[in-house]
Amino acid sequence: MSDVHINIGSNEDRASKLTLALEALEQEFSNIVTSSLYESPAEGFEGNDFYNIGVNASTDKSIHEVKEILKEIEENLGRDRNLAKFSARIIDLDLVLYDDVIEASWNLPRVDILKYAYVLSPLAELNATKQHPIEGQTYQELWRIFQSSRDFVLSQYNIDKLFK
Q: Where are the domains of the chain?
C-alpha cells in the first residue's frame, strides 16, 4: 500500500463540490483523513474565494491509476479542462504526494507545495513530522518558514463547516 496526499479545491458551488469529491475519494481509497477546511482568495485571476482540503489516503493503485481516478472524479463533477490554467474551478483534485516518490514528469512531489499556502498548510496539518523528499525538512518546518517569509491570506475552519 502506498500513502498519498491529495489537495481538493473549488471556487464554484464550493461546499457541494468538495463534499461530492470527498465521497468519491472514499469509494476509491482507504484510510481517508481530511484536514481542516481552508479558504483563500483566487490567485492569478479575479474570482470567488476557494475552499481547499488536504486528504491523506492509502492505495494499492499506481501513480498513473491514481491520477486517472482524480481526473475521472473531476470530469464527473463537471470540470471543464478547456478553461485557462488560472480561472475559476468547479473542482480541482491534485496528487501532491505519492509516498516519497520524486518524479518530475508526474510533478511529484507537487511543486505547488512550496508555492501556495492552501497546499502547504493542509499538508503540514496532516503530515507535520513527515519530511519533504527533496527539501529534507518536515512539512511543519516548511510551513513555519512559509508563514514568516510570505504575505498571504488563508482562513482555517473546522471541516464540519462543509456539512452545514
A: 2-151
